[in-house]
Amino acid sequence: MAHEPKAYAAKRHIMPAMTRKRIAAIDVGTNSIHMIVVEQHRHGYRVIDKEKDMVQLGRGSLEGRPLTDDAMARGIESLRRMAGIAERWKVHEVSAVATSAIREAPNGRRFLNAAQKESGLRIRTISGEEEADYIYRAVRRAVEFHGGTAVIVDIGGGSLELIVGTADEVYFTGSEPLGALRLAQRFGLDRAVGEAAVSKCREWVRKRIKGVAARITTLGFDFSVGTSGTILTLASLRSDRTEQPVASGLKWLTRKRLTELIQEMAPLDAAQRAERFDLDSRRAETILGGAVVLDELMRKLDIHQIRACDVALREGIVEVVLERIEQKKEASPAGSVRRSSVLTLMDRSGVERAHAAQVARLALRIFDQLQEMHRLRTGERELLEYAALLHEVGIHVAYQSHHKHSYYLISHAGLRGFTPDQVSVIAHVARYYRKSPPDEKHESFAQLSNGQQQVVRILASILRMADALDRGRRRTVRDVAVKAKNGVIRLDVRLRGGGEVEMAAAQKRAKYLGLVFEKKVEISSTSPA
Q: Which of 89, 131, 383, 503 has its CA 20 to 30 A from that of 229?
């Protein structure tokens, strides 16, 4: 890979000084060390360089054994080279993390100190749960969740990471010592093996995933995503006889094909696998172990096909760094001033923040999934969020008719960054989150334009439902999936447990939602219980 493209080098003297930040993220894994270099843009970033070394830090170690001298030497040399690449790109920040092999090795700290001395890189060791969080952040940006819940599977060299969540919230993260290199070493899968060795590995994996698989099944999910080199490689080993090519570079791996691959690979040694499947020699040593883990997990979770996603931990690191940079900067003056003034009014009024945030989150989930019906824009979405955050500011005045007190306080709070019309919409939506719905007999509502009245009706109907779904103020509802079809709006309320109070309240509030959208509303729930 060329690390200072000639085209870039040739034009550099005539380009204006770069103001966009460049970031390098390094993942020091058990099997490979990955680096990605990105350049920040207004709405995210673009990748300008990638580098990978399959140094196999965990080779000969793991299970409490120290890193070998050879593995440490390979790792230090790789990191020294990557530090040089980052320097040539003139990156503003390098963020490097180490995972399973370093977490477990008794001499892991010695390796990190030596690596820092040689490369100048400060490397932080992260937990399995933190590793899963980085992976989730990367996938959330790369994959469209369409309002659904995903189970994300990452098979590294030393560990298996599992995440269940939506685009907005994580419900579960888990880490198990079931990495591809670990199992290859433990069960001799880096060489040709018979059915007995594969069966022994399968039995070991089944025992280790039993608990996390039960937890994931209880939570429920709509689709699956696989990350890491192991899953990407397996998904690329397609059978032209049985599977159709996919568009846009998307790769899917079926359980049927995975089972076939395991049967084809097991009788082959690493050199034969590398030749037959066109694999890197080191990948050929570990891929069977990773395939067994994935196969057992897909069987246990009843997954028939999994999408392979080419982002992983390193992209998650980039997301975290960019988020921190953005927090230091003022976003758009209007946006930062608006949110600041809303939060100030909340604090001044003693609003229960956890409840307000939960209601706002659920309201936006419903808004987004009904977008094809209401056709409102991001501006109205923002007003809904602020109305949800402020819908109870009147409680400190008096609980009785507090929705009317909320309307008055919002209208006269001098919220900064909003136009008078926007303040009026926020105040009215908060006013109508409970009790009587919007009515032209109400003097203030009658003074709104026809367009504003319709916006208030739509947003208030959504806010009424969202508030009902946290009626018990216990965040019992973890998500709500909304689908509109054949004259019916169906809400599937996903509960953490219990939820009788919330479901009863939602059934009552559903009437106005149906009236606004001229649809019948049906509500169901799924619960771990």
A: 89
**CA-to-CA dists, residue 136 to 158, 174, 227, 306, angstroms:** 18, 12, 10, 16
Per-residue model confidence (pLDDT) at position 41: 82
Q: Is 518 left (phi over 0), alpha (psi -120 to 50) or beta?
A: left
Please check whether residue 190 is in contact with residue 286, taking contact to mean a CB–CB distance below 8 angstroms.
Answer: yes
List CB contacts of 528: < 8 A, sequence separation 6 or more. Answer: 218, 219, 495, 496, 497
Q: Which two three-digit tokens encode residue 357?
A: 């945030």
Query: How far is CA 117 from each of CA 38, 52, 111, 112, 123, rounded to the nearest angstrom?
Result: 25, 21, 10, 9, 11
pLDDT for residue 242? 41
Angle at the Cα of 267 from the Cα atoms of 265 and 273, rounded to 5 degrees: 45
Radius of gyration of the chain (CA): 27
Distance CA 95, CA 35 (A): 10
Report the 10 Å Cβ neighbour count for 420.
Answer: 8
Q: Which residues contact 518 (CB under 8 A, 6 or more apart)?
A: none
User: Which H, E and C letters describe 509-529, residue by residue?
Assistant: HHHHHHHHHCCEEEEEEECCC
Residue 470 vs residue 169, higher pLDDT: 470
pLDDT of residue 11 exceeding 90:
no
Q: Parallel, antiparallel, or unpaired for β 33-41 and 123-125? A: unpaired
Specify the 3-state DSSP secondary structure of 75.
helix
| Dihedral of the alpha carbons of 208, 210, 212, 215, in degrees to the nearest 10 | -170
489, HSE (Cβ side, Cα atoms, 13 Å): 27
CB burial of residue 80 (10 Å; 0-12, 13-18, 19+): middle
Q: Check: CB of residue 448 under 8 Å from CB of residue 424.
A: yes
Encoding tokens for residue 404? 């009317």
Q: Which amino acid is at 4?
A: E
Q: Region 220-239: what's the mean pLDDT?
A: 89
The C-alpha angle 466, 164, 374, rounded to 5 degrees, equals 35
Nearest residue to 102 (alpha-carbon basis) of 94, 87, 114, 93: 114
Q: Is 39 exposed, middle or buried (0-12, 13-18, 19+ CB in 10 A)?
A: middle
Pick from 431, 320, 322, 270: nearest CA to 97: 320
Is residue 85 a contact partner of residue 73, using CB atoms and an 8 Å limit? no
Q: Which two tokens stand for residue 35?
A: 């680096």
Q: Tell me the C-alpha distance between 345 and 410, whole Å.
A: 8
Quick one: average pLDDT of 264-284? 95
Q: What's 52's DSSP letter?
A: E
